[in-house]
Design a protein that fits this description.
This protein is of the alpha/beta class and 220 residues long. Helices cover 41% and strands 20% of the residues. The strands form 3 sheets. It has a 5-stranded parallel sheet, sandwiched between helices. It has a 4-stranded antiparallel sheet with strand order 6-7-8-9, with helices on one face. α6 packs across α8. InterPro entries: CheY-like_superfamily, OmpR/PhoB-type_DNA-bd, Sig_transdc_resp-reg_receiver, WalR-like, WH-like_DNA-bd_sf. Keywords: DNA-binding, Phosphoprotein, Transcription, Transcription regulation, Two-component regulatory system.
Length: 220
Amino acid sequence: MRILLVEDDERVAAGVTAALTAAGFVVDHARDGDTAWFQGETENYAAAILDLGLPGLDGLSVLRKWRTAGVRLPVLILTARGDWSERVEGIDAGADDYLPKPFRVEELLARLRALVRRAAGQATAVLVNGQLTLDTRRMTVSVDGAPVHLAPQEYRLVNYLMQHAGRVISQLELTEQLYAQDFERDSNAVEVLVGRVRRKLGSNLIQTRRGFGYLIETDN
């Protein structure tokens, strides 16, 4: 899934980007508030990690502009400021969670996964649908209890389809969620990726709705 990281501290941004990438996310990095506001309003992200102290527009202003424009992406505020009144202000402005610096990467990942799950209507970190089980913490996939090794991009595809099981996901949406903004996107990339995953999971688990997209059907 594609995450917007808004952070002007290059050292922090590099560490968070590495952790998110290792955890199976695709990361776009914005270094100032004006860029963040534009990207959040025009691109499709699963969630945003938003620092408050930014060049240009500050983080709270970015958040308010997103919400005023109807941008609903989950937002985790990440900041060195620890005043409780500012936390309240951030939540009231439309943030979904708040994590002060310094922080543990493990907690950041846990909170981010929770935000993404809630936005998709999922309650737990382990997603089970018929034969297919996906553990978002361990980044593992199994079919009928047998583990299946997936490459990182293959895992991202299954993760996104499982998070939205029962909904047809267009090729465009999958492209936006699986590839970074600066990636040279091949129009056939998703089709090829789905084919590889089907060979590993079985051809019946990912369904095609021609002209519409792909889905993993729910088991109820």
